[in-house]
Amino acid sequence: MEFKSYSSLSDAIISSKKFPYNPKKRTVDIMNSVGFYSCAEIHSPDDFPKYSKSAVDGFAIQSRNTISSTRTNPSYFKIIGESSPEKDFNGSVREGEAVKIYTGGKLPEGTDSVVMMEDTEIFSDEVKIFVPVRKFQNVSLRGEDIEKGYVLVRKGGRITPPHLVAFLEVGIKMIEIYDFRIGIISTGNEIVNGRVINSTQPFLREYLKWNGLEADCLGTVQDDENEIRKKIEQENHDIFIITGGTGPSDRDVLTNFLENNATKIFHGLKIRPARTTGLYIYNGRPIFIISGLPVAALIAAENIFLPIISHWTGIELSKKNYVEGRLSRSIVNTLGFRSFVRVRIDRNYDPPMIIPVRVTGSGVIYSIIDADGILEVDENSEGFQEGDTVKVELLRW
Amino acid sequence: MEFKSYSSLSDAIISSKKFPYNPKKRTVDIMNSVGFYSCAEIHSPDDFPKYSKSAVDGFAIQSRNTISSTRTNPSYFKIIGESSPEKDFNGSVREGEAVKIYTGGKLPEGTDSVVMMEDTEIFSDEVKIFVPVRKFQNVSLRGEDIEKGYVLVRKGGRITPPHLVAFLEVGIKMIEIYDFRIGIISTGNEIVNGRVINSTQPFLREYLKWNGLEADCLGTVQDDENEIRKKIEQENHDIFIITGGTGPSDRDVLTNFLENNATKIFHGLKIRPARTTGLYIYNGRPIFIISGLPVAALIAAENIFLPIISHWTGIELSKKNYVEGRLSRSIVNTLGFRSFVRVRIDRNYDPPMIIPVRVTGSGVIYSIIDADGILEVDENSEGFQEGDTVKVELLRW
To answer: I need a surface site. Which of A246, A252, B8, B388 has the fewest CB within 10 A?
Structure first.
């Protein structure tokens, strides 16, 4: 049995955008923030470095007195103290005076540059300087790395390890991240009775985690409208993904339940695989549905669920990377359907050889283990010929 | 002060390979295995599918009796039962008999193909078949997805979400992963007394975690050889990374401690940044050392620590991805040094514009937040000119 009509992927995504979804937020310690998404633009509250400091070991001086210094005609400075990362020099430096300074030491008041140790010679309490020194030479100026007000993370940006460095250095201790949990439910008597292994549910959880989203496996329910309703109502997740029973036939209990009780955004897509993917809103909570097959779940999660959740929340998914290469054999597409073809990439060729993974059955787990990327074939394309140059999206792992 | 001599990056990596490092292993539940590295090649213990099954809703039959079937001249089969994912048909199917079958249902004994529901018509206990059916049509054959013996994960391969699906489907419940923990210690009085913020230590932990390695922050110790020794000996980590005091001068306590007590593999590299990076073996445990600056730590971790650990253990680091583009401004390199230049990539141009991030000081955290990739400039290169075509390695986040 078939759906009465199928939406294109782009129409489906457009219609989902009309649903106003406002995710909750929560505040976390920055030490636990890496991998999550910031829900606000984060500005630096301070300059970094907080003060100007030396980038080398040497002597802090006023540069203008060194203009004509050479090895045979050095300039002379009186050493009046020391500045190191551990201890500042407190006091002001006047013309003709120098402060011994170590890498990271605060630049003393009155100085504007540092001459490197190897361009000097110490003689009792004096230092000879053999080279001319420019203003700010060997100095890390206050705020030169991060200026107060700089945007450290965009709204929706994912927190990465380098952000942690910046937060620590400029004194940000807590940040707000999106706080929504995705609950994954599987339906199907064949799963409940254990005849079919439920690999899609843990797969989806790990896939979502890999992408920085919080998801829980919520177990399995019978193909029974009341059981499905009870399950959804007892869980307090913000978004659901429900697998199984997503076809258009009477035996597809999940479809029936949602058709009768929820608002349909779309259901049935002109894509392969994952054409039974749908989105409904039930009591204000989005419910994505997808066939129980892991490959369909992967394609739906990557190309439908994540982009829609990203639109709703503003989270920035990691940039997709592409590789161009030549197709090792032709691919036939059914006009009107967008196909997601799993491919391997052989980089021993130049340009790389793009090898479609042979797919016969419908589960075809091996096709996603063995694949390096996905080649999308447009609804209006009849496919590609052997030798065609194609652009392949790299999988995120 | 300078090192007596500097090694090239490639020499350093070659010398580290001579150290025989055998990481421990531990067995984990597959549900907790995603993101880690397998220490053995994992073969499938079984076929998947475990039995041949239908890929559609329809009727399972012997195909040879349908060769001349057409809409006006259908072939007739007697319906003798039903097979679904929930319940097999137990019995053997003879010529002229059909079993109603649902997607995922086990193919009954005696049948070799499935005709789709829409190409049939049911009439009482008979079904008319309007099309010729090929052998194995609409059937997922036993083992067609994963054959017994297939390699599911290579030795050292990282476990990704799709592997979890395969493990579940073929009945793998536990796997062996590498079991080594990296301990990160920071030295420096300026960090102990709180004048300098220790952002490099948590950065390294998150960076290693991001790459699937287990690492702990072990705190900070004074610039004191005995304190450093005590710290290392009280921790039972397998590999250490110690930051700070890595230069060649007398004030570099960590260098002194290791020079006197450990076996040097290399120390001092012809690279920029991170030229004070080193590797020593202390009582059989590798100790990587690196300056306390986060940018140096990133470059050392990415280009030195991870490749060496990968060599020792066999873990497969994620493939590096590259982008080619044109340089927006020239870069000058010091001959003899390999430079790692942080760049942004503007994909609004074709080819993309590669924009070196302006770097003045030495901390320059913003350069790693703002960067999309790293452009390596070879020891033998004087740099690149504006407009040159260059290949940039994309950062892993």
So the answer is: B388
Residue A1 pLDDT grade (very low, low, confident, very high; cuts 50, 70, 90): low
In percent, the amount of chain B with pLDDT more than 90 equals 76
pLDDT for residue A65: 85
DSSP letter assigned to residue B7: B
Domains of chain A listed by start with CATH number: 9-23+180-313 (3.40.980.10), 29-48+144-177 (3.90.105), 53-140 (2.170.190.11), 322-394 (2.40.340.10)
Question: What is the bridge-based pairing of β-strands A181-187 and A239-243?
Answer: parallel
Are B203 and A165 a contacting pair at CB < 8 A? Answer: yes
A169: which chain B residues are within 8 Å (Cβ-Cβ)? Answer: 197, 199, 363, 365
Distance between CA atoms of A376 and B196, rounded to whole angstroms?
Answer: 50
Contact B203 A363 (CB under 8 A): no
* B387/chain A closest Cα distance in angstroms: 22
Closest C-alpha among A247, A369, A299, A214 to residue B169 = A369
Distance from CA of A139 to the nearest CA of B (A): 7
Distance CA B329, CA B348 (A): 17
Please give the residue of chain A at the shortest CA–CA distance from B368: A162
Min Cα distance A47 → chain B (Å) is: 12
Which amino acid, residue B58?
G
- Measured CA to CA in angstroms, residue B31 lies from A191, A213, B36, B154 at distances of 18, 17, 11, 19
Contact A258, A270 (CB under 8 A): no
> Rounded to whole angstroms, how far apart are CA atoms A57 and A137?
12
**Whole-number Å distance between alpha carbons of A288 and A48:** 45
- Max alpha carbon distance in chain B (Å)? 98
Q: Do A158 and B397 touch (CB under 8 A)?
A: yes
CA angle B198, B199, B202 (to 5 degrees): 105
Residues in chain A closer than 8 A to B146 (CB atoms): 365-366
Which among A158, A161, A365 has CB closest to B203?
A: A161
For residue A276, pLDDT over 70 is answered with: yes
Residues of chain B positioned with their CB less than 8 A from the CB of A49: 361, 363
pTM: 0.88
Of A9-13, A163-167, A370-374, B263-267, the poorest mean pLDDT is in A370-374
Beta pairing, strands B338-346 & B353-356 = antiparallel
User: For residue A396, which of A224, A255, A206, A247 has the smallest C-alpha distance?
Assistant: A206
Partners of B338 in the beta sheet? B271
* ipTM of the complex in this document: 0.86
Q: What is the pLDDT of residues B53-72, one digit of tens each?
A: 998 899 999 999 899 999 99
> Do A165 and A21 touch, CB atoms closer than 8 A?
no
Beta strands in A166-321 (DSSP E): 174-179, 181-187, 214-221, 239-243, 263-267, 271-272, 278-282, 285-290
Q: Closest to B199 (Cβ–Cβ): which among A144, A169, A197?
A: A169
The answer to whether the CB atoms of B164 and A199 lie below 8 A apart is yes
Question: Which residues make beta-bridge pairs with A60?
Answer: A99, A114
Q: Which helix or strand (DSSP H or E) is residue A285 part of?
A: strand A285-290
Q: Is B110 exposed, middle or buried (0-12, 13-18, 19+ CB in 10 A)?
A: middle
